[in-house]
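Page 47, continued from p. 46.
Same chain as before, 229 aa.
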Amino acid sequence: MNDTRTHYAGGQEHENEPVPGLPASLPAGERILWQGSPRFAAMATQAFHVRKVAVYFALLIGVRGALALADGMSPVAALGHALWLLPLAAGGIGLLMLLAWLVGRSTLYTITTKRVVLRYGVALPMSINVPFAIIESAGLRVRDDGTGELTLALGGADRIAYLHLWPHARPWALKQPQPMLRGIEQPQAVAALLAAALAGEPLPQWAEANPAARPGSAGGTGTLVPAGF
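Result:
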């Protein structure tokens, strides 16, 4: 398997998966090293930009109130005039948070001994196989909340459409879309695991001891190049 392949699965709950997160049973000689899903808060703030939207509405409400005062309204009337936008803001932010929850709930990232698999999709579940053979480089970014993102730069002629990948795509990499594992916990440990698997080096001890589990207190500084966002 030397190219990316997309598989569509029926059922929003992914009940047809022979192995959770994978479109088919593992071939002989391949095994799962790690699986994880995006953290809800990270998906909401980083992919759906809930904080930025909240700031935008706060500024809009403030400007509306200031203009009302400038037009001669009393402070109470100006406040009421400005807060008219509050239900709209709450509805918009609530919708974005719901989408972030649904995306996180339906997403499962998998690293095996031979590939990275992204399973996602709320209305139309799908999975994308990224064989190690076509990964030219990988990037790690650690966020202030402790979560992180792993990006995969792909080689070869095959490309995955940016809109097909979003929100599991590196932002603004439109010409050469890069799959991205978003909002993962213990990102440095996962990065160290992926780097070792790509290089064919010995795996971290926690992966050998419990290969299907997320890293907990596992160390590892990671050897992937910076993502450079």
